[in-house]
Amino acid sequence: MINRPFAVVSLSKNGETIAPGEEISQTLRFANYSPTAIDRAYVTFNSPNGWESEPATATFNNIAAGPAVLGASDSQNVAETDWIVRPPIDAMSKKRELGVTVEYGDSISIEEQFTINVE
Question: Is residue 2 part of a domain?
């Protein structure tokens, strides 16, 4: 039996409305709920062409096993980062899908989507 680490990705906002050229900050939370520590998780922020994204990628290192294992506290098994996205000043009014992809373990990938309304 292969032990595949179980983790959850969550985002702080969905369905926000912003004006063209206005930035929005999104917090990504990666929580390890498996009995195994995760050495490294790679995050890729996916935004539409022409949008600014800071950062474009992030890396989490040494994420402890889940809180039910070995008495780890929530802060030990969770990694967070802030991501700022900004549509171009000439962006058309439209609902846009953005997302993140987190890859970790042996080819495990989690994708999480969210919506921004540009008006």
Answer: no
DSSP letters of 69-99?
STT--TTTSEEEEEEEEE--TTPPSEEEEEE
Residue 20, classed as helix, strand or coil, is: coil
Say which DSSP state 105 is in.
Answer: T
- Cα distances from 108 to residues 7, 25, 50, in angstroms, run 10, 26, 29
Contact between residue 79 and residue 63 where contact means Cβ atoms under 8 Å apart: yes
| pTM listed for this prediction | 0.85
* CA atoms in the 13 A half-sphere facing the CB of 47: 20
Domain contains 1? no
| pLDDT (tens digit per residue) in 82-91 | 999 999 999 9
CATH of residue 20's domain is: 2.60.40.10
Beta strands in the chain (DSSP E): 7-11, 16-18, 24-32, 38-46, 52-54, 57-63, 78-86, 94-104, 108-118
